[in-house]
Amino acid sequence: MKVYVYPADIHGCGYYRLIWVSRVLAKAGHNITIIMPGTKSPHEIQGKVLGGRTVAASAPLDADVMVFQRITHRRLSEAIPLFRARGIAVVMDMDDDLAHI
Fold first, then answer.
1. Which long-range contacts (CB under 8 A, 24 or more apart) does 77-81 make?
2. Per residue in 29-43, is it b (16+ CB within 10 Å) or e — as a string?
3. pLDDT score recorded for residue 101
4. Who's near 15: CB < 8 A, 6+ residues apart?
5. pTM score over 0.85
6. Which segments of the chain have a pLDDT < 50?
């Protein structure tokens, strides 16, 4: 199983909740790739918008699971059903009550 992890930041939440955990799992032999925010990666998500909605979104071809943190961008939330329709499981970490920060 191939897992791609997309932390929201490289500060406390990103490290505590996704990066460190993913590194431990990878060291234990799990097939995990961490896509650090702000870096160029061939696994960066690209989307196609038509009529104001996301109608296509790229995902790594070998992805079985994609883990996202703190999804706040509308286009990414619109892409999740597209990933799921392709058989990719999506995990979302919402560590904060964003409506009240």
1. 78/47, 78/53, 78/54, 79/45, 79/47, 79/54
2. eeebbbbeeeeeeeb
3. 65
4. 7
5. yes
6. none
